[in-house]
Amino acid sequence: MPKRVLQGTVVSDTNEKTVVVRVERRFTHPVMKKTVRRSKKYQAHDEANIAKVGDIVQIEECAPISRNKRWTLVPSA
């Protein structure tokens, strides 16, 4: 099964080797038929501490690294 890859914005890089990424999804409301935006925050592993607040990054699913970290930063090509 392929690993999921999500794109989002870094909202925190305070922790060592960890970034918090806000991923936003858009969908049409089933009754109101308006576009609704929902966001969720994920903690991702950043081994080299390269991501900074405001960066747009991609994160990939991985095996659990800690209690809250199940995603890793995808190195930009």
Short description:
With 77 residues, the protein is an all-beta fold. It has strands at 5-12, 18-28, 35-45, 56-61, 71-73. Helix content is 0%, strand content 51%.
Label this structure with key terms.
5-stranded mixed beta barrel, single chain, OB fold (Dihydrolipoamide Acetyltransferase, E2P), 5 strands, ribosomal protein, mainly beta, Small ribosomal subunit protein uS17, 77 residues
What does this structure look like?
- This is Small ribosomal subunit protein uS17.
- One of its GO terms (cellular component) is ribosome.
- Belongs to the universal ribosomal protein uS17 family.
- The chain is mainly β and 77 residues long.
- It has one domain (5-73): OB fold (Dihydrolipoamide Acetyltransferase, E2P).
- Helix content is 0%, strand content 51%.
- It has no helices and five strands.
- It has strands at 5-12, 18-28, 35-45, 56-61, 71-73.
- It has a five-stranded mixed β-barrel with strand order 1-2-3-5-4.
- Strand 1 and strand 2 (18-28) form a beta hairpin.
- It is globular, with a radius of gyration of 14 Å.
